[in-house]
Amino acid sequence: MTQFRSSRSEMSLGLFLLGAGHHIAAWRLPEAPPNAAVSFPHYQAIAAEAEAAKFDAIFFADSASVRDFGISPIDRDERSIRLEPLTLLSALAVSTDRIGLIATASTTYNEPYNLARRFASLDLLSGGRAGWNLVTSANAQDGPNFSLEAHPEHGVRYDRAHEFEEVVRGLWHSWEGEDAFPLDKTGGQIFRPEALHPLNHKGAHFAVRGPLSVPPSAQGHPVIIQAGASEAGRDTAARTAEVVFAAHQSFDEAFAFYQDVKRRLAAYGRAPEDLKILPGVSPFIGRTRAEAQASFDELQDLVTPEVGLKLLQPFAGGLDLRDYDLDGPLPDLPVTTNAIGRQKLLVDLARRENLTIRQLYLHIAGARGHWQLIGTASEIAGELEHYFKNGAADGFNIMPPALQRSLGPITELLLPELRRRGLFRKDYTGTTLREHLGLRRPDLPAFPQFAA
Amino acid sequence: MTQFRSSRSEMSLGLFLLGAGHHIAAWRLPEAPPNAAVSFPHYQAIAAEAEAAKFDAIFFADSASVRDFGISPIDRDERSIRLEPLTLLSALAVSTDRIGLIATASTTYNEPYNLARRFASLDLLSGGRAGWNLVTSANAQDGPNFSLEAHPEHGVRYDRAHEFEEVVRGLWHSWEGEDAFPLDKTGGQIFRPEALHPLNHKGAHFAVRGPLSVPPSAQGHPVIIQAGASEAGRDTAARTAEVVFAAHQSFDEAFAFYQDVKRRLAAYGRAPEDLKILPGVSPFIGRTRAEAQASFDELQDLVTPEVGLKLLQPFAGGLDLRDYDLDGPLPDLPVTTNAIGRQKLLVDLARRENLTIRQLYLHIAGARGHWQLIGTASEIAGELEHYFKNGAADGFNIMPPALQRSLGPITELLLPELRRRGLFRKDYTGTTLREHLGLRRPDLPAFPQFAA
């Protein structure tokens, strides 16, 4: 059987931003701004560093509610407060020039015309740097903020998501023809009328006439990203995604996922390079392994049991883990209807490594079930190279545990080491997110954005 | 009977931005960027000029469809294409420091939780400069982009809008207590749990639990603006708006509207200064009146009949005006279920001034039914002063006919003349939009946005 691996010599690297960092206690470090979760100056400084380091993109997750409101201590988790990601990225578009801008937006609680328009607007004004991380809302607490008693089931959400994506993509393709935009003052014509056509979509969830009022960007339309690990998620990704943010604990898992998803592409008439797979990885880097370990331990010591249990709550399937011995084994969890894929990852991990409840929450305190590496830059670069060269990754979505502490070692130790190995760019060669990622530009006319 | 007039000595001035300008032919002028409608550099340059001139705010209208698609020649109207206003304003928040940022967003085709979150995010990241122009979608063509066969009736839209506003305001008030945000690293607490409460709204249109995940801004929450001129619109404004963008053709109309809306406030326990009324005005300014008239005539000459008729189409109640003699009188129009208030303004104007169809579309080509002034800076300042001092306005929403041509005379001739008369600020005295407008800050804790 064909074995797939990256067709490029250099990997893609995204930087996943989340408040003071991915480690739940990051905001408590002395060097962290305690208001990082909603501080624009904080994100602005980090985005500038990320661009100087030539990352492909910065990325924001999202949640349309205060997570665990009424369930666990929200006042001790900086993730209870956040800025809406598209608003934030639109602002960061102005303080950056080249880096890609990826925002999560849910198909469960939005209208496709609104989202298509907002992402197309960000894409046009940023010069073709936008990406949409398409998710179904996994958080059951979002429902009651949108006039729903019950959060829709996994299957219904995926069905809606599929049609939602079709509509958004269709709206982005409202424009056609090389000479679509004459911008002719003398003749009084902005665009050729035949360049703009309606969508006339009628489906089970949506009826959308179109066309879209935003012209295409320098990269055509925003890059479509997905993150689902479930069977439905993998299939949706193979059909429509251009990037997949994956979550794995081991090379074998990552390899199996990579090969499976790449293999599914052919059925949809797509080539392996039409979809990039970027596993998440949270690196603790030190000049020595001991230094890296000390940095990790300092953060772990700041995790209190109440905050630790809060991390497990979304995957507990309704069970209150406070009723169990923290130093005993994880009980069998009722299957959640929400984050099925993430729950399975977690339970597999606990069983495989025989973790207590405390060990489990400490294990995910840094990267919420994503891959975590503690070591020197050389050790970590070696791991990433292994994945990249052997069919487990096209690059990585880097999840810094604590931004003010981790970003320095990433840009000053890890990236130079990857560059020495010829695995990461020295400078941008393109201007759009698609160019950074090595993705094809869709066949759409570009609006002459900077003509005078 | 009490006569109301502005309680402040200086007027508020908003700058209403729309592509190359409000005159439908503005983009065809030699100095205009033909891509202005969707050009971020264009808007960035104009916003910088507006801030240097100390305007209270810049303002964007919106429409969630390509207007008149399939009805009239969309390729000849730059308003067929546009950027989504909140996306655009989030970007402009970064390239400006002090000026207010007002975006239109519809209550007809959005979810209140999403809008509350986006405006609160813009408000927080801009340091308290956001304003929400709350509208019901008057454009029947928006409906088919949102899975609706028929655009909801005027009454239903107002009813939904009223509840929508209640929910958004309620979500913005999710936070309470002076010391709501300890940001205490040592104790591990971001905010006091009792500072955050759910909304638990249950109404005819929405059920929204809350709370909102975005903390309050420097000005508490965004300023709420409305523009409805109908009976329902006036009442909604008196109940909830902090600013009203009005549309009038004469002092008498403006005076009657101002007095009526200010008088309605008491019934809702509000003081006259809790709501500011800013009529729209489109000034053609010259060093002489002849120069102003020449500038106006040049633009009018660029309006072709097909584009002119397009301007009337939204108010024609379904009648195709191409079937009528352009140089004959306006026929009786079937009442539109959409823009009732604006249709009435237009018909009243045509009847009062005995205009032909051609004269009518030329009349609104510059300002779409808003007040238009052609004259010297001194003449125009005199008019504005008359309105401001005699109970017809708290300030104005300036609608430049052609930005590249009109903004210079506005900032270099008109504003200095207003300053000589003591009617407009020399510099900002506050940092938030509420401070610019002289509006009370709601009783909400401010998040320590810039603490290190």
Automatic annotation (TrEMBL), chains A, B:
UniProt keywords, alphabetically: Flavoprotein, FMN, Monooxygenase, Oxidoreductase
Protein name, per record: Xenobiotic (Desulfurization)monooxygenase subunit A
Domain Luciferase-like, residue spans: 33-340
Pfam families: Bac_luciferase (PF00296)
Family: Belongs to the NtaA/SnaA/DszA monooxygenase family.
InterPro entries (alphabetical): Diverse_substr_monoxygenases (IPR051260), Luciferase-like_dom (IPR011251), Luciferase-like_sf (IPR036661), NTA_MOA (IPR016215)
Its EC number(s): 1.14.13.-
Residue ranges the record marks as coiled coil: none
Gene3D superfamilies: Luciferase-like domain
Residues involved in FMN binding: 62, 104, 154, 158, 230
Native species: Paracoccus aminophilus JCM 7686
